[in-house]
Amino acid sequence: MKTFTKQQLALRNGQDKPEIWIAYQGIIYDVSNSKMWRNGKHYEHWAGQDLTDELKDAPHTQRVFEKFIPIGQLI
Ligand code: HEM
């Protein structure tokens, strides 16, 4: 799997580059096509970072990631 740094992930926040990426448990997912992550924002949460610790605030489980293909690993 490809590896990306925090800095590379941070640029994919829906503002600075066209791609929208989020990381969960060290795995990076491309959510660019998700209507729910438009402009990098999902409720009060922003893309471009590892959101592992924030999943506890969500009304859903990590199963929301199942439909996304992992694109890389956060190092
Ligand atoms: C206040 C916090 C949050 C709320 C209210 C919220 C709400 C929702 C809702 C209603 C959906 C669509 C229905 C469903 O699958 O249950 C969804 C999908 C999703 N959520 Fe959240 N969520 C929150 C936080 C988070 C966090 C912190 C993450 C990442 C760790 C996350 C990642 C996702 C993903 C990847 C999807 C799937 C998007 C898609 O299918 O296009 N959510 N969320």
From TrEMBL:
Transmembrane segments: none annotated. It comes from Algoriphagus machipongonensis. It comes from the Bacteria. This is Cytochrome b5 heme-binding domain-containing protein. Residues 4-75 form the Cytochrome b5 heme-binding domain.
